Amino acid sequence: MVLVSVDIGGTFTDIVSIENGEISYYKVPTTPKNPEIGVMLGMSKYLDGKKIDEFLHATTIATNSLLGQYGLELPKIALITTKGFKDVIEIGRQNRPELYNLNFHRPKILVPERFRYEVDERTDVSGDIIKDLNVEDLKGIVKNLEKNNIKSIGICFLHSYKNPENELKAKKFFEKYIKNISISYEISPEPREYERMSTTIVNAALAPVTSEYIRKLESGLKVFGTNDIRIMSNAGGLIFGDEASKRPVNIIESGPAAGVIAASEFAKIMNINNVIAFDMGGTTAKAGTILDGNFEITSEYEVGGSSHHGRLVKGSGYPVRFPFIDLSEVSAGGGTIIWKDEAGGLNIGPKSSGSDPGPVCYNKGGKYPTLTDSNLILGIINDKMSGSDFELRKDLSTKALEKLGNPYEIAEKAIKLAVLEMARGIRLVTVERGIDPENFTLFGFGGAGPQFVVRIAEELNMKKVIIPPGPGVFSALGLMYSDMRYEARKSYPEDLENDYRKLESKIKTKLRNPEFLKYADCRYVGQGSELTVPVTEINKNKIYKDFEEIHEKTFGFKLNKDIEIFTIKLFAIEKRNKPKIKSSESKKSSSYKRKVYIESKWLEINVYSRDSLVKDETIKGPCIIEENGSSTFIPQTWSARLGENDEIVVIK
User: Fold this and answer.
1) Peptide bond preceding 622: is omega within 30 degrees of 0, i.e. cis?
2) 101 and 186 share a domain?
3) Could you tell me the CATH number of the domain that includes residue 511?
């Protein structure tokens, strides 16, 4: 049996294959404009004509398309909405994301005013239809859609989450003319018109691009004997390709979610309950918290928004109301550009060199020094980067850094800035959630993660770091350990037991034998935001009591006010058979010496090959452990050993 998982990142596409317990890792350059080409070229090169039994996937196609990156363009889309409400999407919440920034620009409106159409229909807040939809009113809209070559539409009527009859009627009419139709009742059946409309529009914008990408991928996979694609969702579970095509808002944060799942599953194997997953690739670094074996889920996200030291700036992106793994993200990756401001201060990011042209040392036309260039001239990574087919040009990196000052001093300062930035991102998902990171184990992965992760642990006063097997492709490996996971929700439930049962029936059609996790978004009557409560017993009093405990734990107080259940949610999980990976055999460790610039000094330190490490044999820092696709730096006062599951355990 051959299992293959593929994670497309901003710089590299990671491929993992498992056959009879034997695992193989591959990295190939991402082909941004047509990401499926890089996947097929990599698989053709390394799989040697083997037939695939299962194909799992994480992709950045949705985010890149929405941001207009790499020349990926969104199609023309239209909005059909209730009379008097076409400008909701432009008015928004009147947020002031950057109060003192005179040059702030809101993200581009995805649907220009000329493609926003109003329909004379109305449903009230109780779900009663005040005015039926007259399909005759839609015929004039169809002519305009055809005239303007509109490929996708979003339909969002007032209070359709309570009664979708008019939306469903409109969808049935437009299906005769338009292939891609997104209706808010199916995408985001919740109150708050702006967020629901925004989510529906984002889905409508992504549907043509995502469905075409998945179609091409399925076509290419026929050569390998399969066209069955399972894709990682934002919520940390796999969904089928057809679901991703219809609801691409499901896969906006597909890749980062896979990394958290990988850390969560690997931690279970090692019997570690509290973990911080730290994933640093070529463009960004992401951090997520796993507490008592569970990762946090949030329902609020702004795709394409800007961040301030890892904190999302509300109002700077496109709001999407959908389940996401709670992550912080900072603009610090191997390709992050180092620069000086007008005052001569050294800065890193947010701009990245990506995969094209990439860091200066790639010799592909990059002009600006990056964190990868810094680690190269400092000796942290080798000239012949393990796992790559080309030699890194240290001379080019040195020349680029010299433009900013003494290259070694600049490189070391840039690394320290990056460590501070990434530590700040981890504090967002720990300290600001009332969690002490010192009580957690830090998992470091991604192509650049092991180069920085122990230094970050030092900054956070953490005592234990795990470098898992294949850290450079760990998110792709995490796909192998993921379960199928589908979500459904209903706002303002009237009969809890019956409403949960209806949600179960809705999802059972997609999965064979699912287990169900129930949640309820609750709030005090009059509050403007909710807290998510895990539902262990379908009993209102029990849910209310749990809500008050969570409220007091979160905010430090509770109120003597009535409580209401705003939205109920159901996650259906179908367990997959997880592959068993053979552990490596005992061997004799070997090393060589290399000069590395540490704390303004050149030191000759040991460099080990990960393949040569002997289980439970301790090696002391400062030292470096090299492997395909990554290098781990162990500072002084830290020591490392190879664990039972081929993980590197680093302790202070």
Assistant:
1) yes
2) yes
3) 3.30.1490
Strands laid side by side in the 601-609 sheet: 591-598, 601-609, 623-627, 630-634
Whether 410 and 363 share a structural domain: yes
Closest CA to 547 of 562, 532, 527, 560: 532
In total, how many domains does the chain have?
4
Q: What is the pLDDT of residues 70-97, one digit of tens each?
A: 556 678 999 999 999 999 999 988 777 7
Q: Within this chain, do residues 85 and 191 fall inside the same structural domain, yes or no?
A: yes
Last residue of a domain, one of 416, 451, 470: 416
C-beta atoms surrounding 199 within 10 Å? 27
Three-class DSSP category at 449: helix
Is the residue at 140 inside a domain? yes
Helix 449-459 and helix 407-428, axial crossing angle in degrees, nearest 10? 70
Could you tell me the pTM of the whole model?
0.88
- The domain in which residue 412 lies consists of 336-416
DSSP at 613: P
Q: Is the pLDDT of residue 69 over 60?
A: no
Contacts of 491 (CB under 8 A, 6+ apart): 161, 162, 189, 190, 191, 566, 567
What CA–CA distance (Å, rounded) separates 210 from 179? 13
- Opening angle at CA 421, ends 417 and 422, nearest 5: 120
Please tell me what DSSP assigns to residue 517. E
Torsion angle (degrees, nearest 10) of CA 424, 428, 431, 434: 180
Q: Looking at the predicted structure, is the pLDDT value of residue 629 above 90?
A: no
Contact predicate 611/588, CB 8 Å = no
Q: What is the pLDDT of residues 13-57, one digit of tens each?
A: 889 998 887 888 888 888 877 888 889 988 988 887 789 989 999
| 265 domain-assigned | no
**HSE of 55, CA atoms in CB hemisphere, 13 A:** 24
Q: Could you read off the pLDDT of 143-195 as tens digits, one per residue? A: 999 999 998 999 999 999 999 999 999 999 999 999 999 999 999 999 999 99
